[in-house]
């Protein structure tokens, strides 16, 4: 019995030592929870980066495909970038396009300017207007087929010259078949300089060719970018024709009388008004981007039209969550909300490599300049916290998901690379250095 009793005691004591206390279990569970969160975060981060790089490669391949089609067909071919139906600042699909046949219906006559109220006397001997008869331009305009920077060839034969149309200054929007040219017609006319009709009967051009928007290639279906990715138009360097102007200012004043979050200006840049106050796009009467974002390649492989004017086009490709999280003025933000600085006016193109998380809920102010500060411990240093001119406090987070894709319009070459942050020097990247210099491309 004593021996058995001792053995029994030994067994009970050993069993007690092999167990865990409640505190020990809680510590282990907490450590496991932290590891799970870190793992999931790392996986999501890696997936987001892989998605944007995959989307960048897809856009690059698609543009190269359009260029090859143009060279092979010995005729212009291009790509139409299609806006996301739920976000008018992001492109999520593409489709191949080809030029439309030129419109040449009806006849034309050239006119000089006769300002309103019309008195039948020309204001200047220069010829700026083209009046159509039976051309049906007003119907084309209503169908969206005559857009800003459209071109017209006068006369319509081999001796003609191409002119850019000032669509906003023309009469087609009111149903009148009248175009205003951005530059004066090359001939002085045969009538008296003060006569509105520039050419006497039987003289002057009567034919024309009107350039219409490209059409989708037959049998081609749109191609979607990888899920949850898109081209961030707000942070991209785009052709001017992709951002048509609006006619009126719209200023939405906040409770304190300052411009509200839907304040806009009439030059579509979202820059500053005459007083230097930043204006931001609204959603009511502001058309931020054209409905047709087209790039056409020539048979030589270069970009055609007004889109070639800038020399290069920069596309920023990011996740849709990042694209949709642009900071807005005079807006209530809850703790945990994540925003990016929208590229507007003087803040264009920067910063790409930072996002900001709300650590103290409140209402944002109207000054976005605090997000671009380079002072130590402010908006550029990862982990630092700062307050806008409202009551929101933000913490700076690193963002390495975007990719930059650049098109060199003179050659048609396309290059893509991820945006990176130099952790060794803790400095922001010059994200456009490669694209502007072509250094790596050499």
Automatic annotation (TrEMBL):
The chain crosses the membrane at residues 20-47. The keyword Transmembrane helix applies. It comes from the Bacteria. Residues 248-277 are annotated as: Disordered. Keywords: Membrane, Transmembrane, Transmembrane helix. This is Prepilin-type N-terminal cleavage/methylation domain-containing protein.
């Amino acid at each position: 019995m004593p021996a058995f009793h001792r053995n029994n005691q030994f067994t009970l004591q050993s069993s007690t030592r092999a167990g865990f206390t409640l505190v020990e279990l809680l510590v282990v569970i907490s450590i496991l929870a932290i590891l799970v969160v870190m793992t999931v975060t790392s996986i999501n981060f890696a997936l987001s980066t892989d998605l944007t790089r995959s989307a960048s490669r897809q856009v690059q391949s698609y543009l190269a495909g359009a260029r090859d089609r143009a060279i092979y067909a010995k005729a212009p071919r291009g790509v139409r970038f299609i806006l996301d139906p739920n976000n008018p600042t992001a492109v999520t699909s593409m489709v191949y396009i080809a030029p439309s046949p030129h419109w040449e219906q009806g006849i034309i006559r050239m006119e000089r300017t006769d300002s309103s109220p019309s008195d039948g006397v020309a204001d200047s001997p220069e010829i700026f207007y083209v009046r159509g008869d039976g051309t049906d331009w007003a119907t084309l305009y209503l169908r969206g087929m005559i857009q800003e920077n459209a071109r017209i060839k006068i006369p319509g034969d081999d001796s003609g010259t191409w002119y850019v149309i000032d669509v906003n200054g023309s009469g087609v929007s009111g149903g009148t078949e009248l175009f205003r040219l951005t530059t004066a017609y090359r001939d002085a006319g045969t009538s008296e300089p003060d006569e509105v009709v520039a050419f006497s009967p039987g003289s002057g051009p009567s034919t024309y060719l009107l350039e219409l928007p490209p059409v989708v290639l037959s049998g081609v279906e749109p191609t979607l970018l990888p899920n949850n990715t898109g081209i961030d138009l707000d942070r991209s360097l785009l052709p001017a024709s992709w951002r048509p102007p609006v006619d009126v200012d719209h200023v939405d004043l906040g409770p304190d009388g300052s411009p509200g979050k839907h304040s806009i200006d009439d030059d579509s840049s979202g820059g500053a008004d005459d007083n230097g106050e930043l204006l931001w796009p609204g959603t009511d009467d502001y058309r931020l981007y054209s409905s047709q974002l087209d790039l056409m390649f020539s048979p030589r492989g270069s970009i055609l039209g007004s889109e070639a004017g800038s020399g290069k086009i920069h596309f920023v490709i990011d996740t849709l969550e990042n694209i949709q999280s642009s900071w807005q003025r005079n807006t209530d933000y809850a703790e945990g909300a994540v925003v990016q600085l929208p590229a507007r006016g003087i803040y264009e193109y920067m910063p790409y490599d930072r996002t900001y998380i709300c650590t103290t809920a409140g209402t944002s102010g109207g000054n976005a300049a605090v997000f671009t500060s380079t002072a130590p411990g402010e908006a550029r240093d990862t982990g630092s916290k700062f307050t806008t001119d409202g009551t929101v406090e933000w913490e700076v987070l690193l963002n390495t998901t975007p990719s930059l894709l650049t098109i060199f319009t003179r050659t048609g070459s396309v290059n893509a690379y991820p945006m990176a942050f130099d952790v060794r020097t803790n400095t922001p990247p010059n994200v456009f250095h490669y694209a502007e210099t072509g250094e790596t491309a050499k």
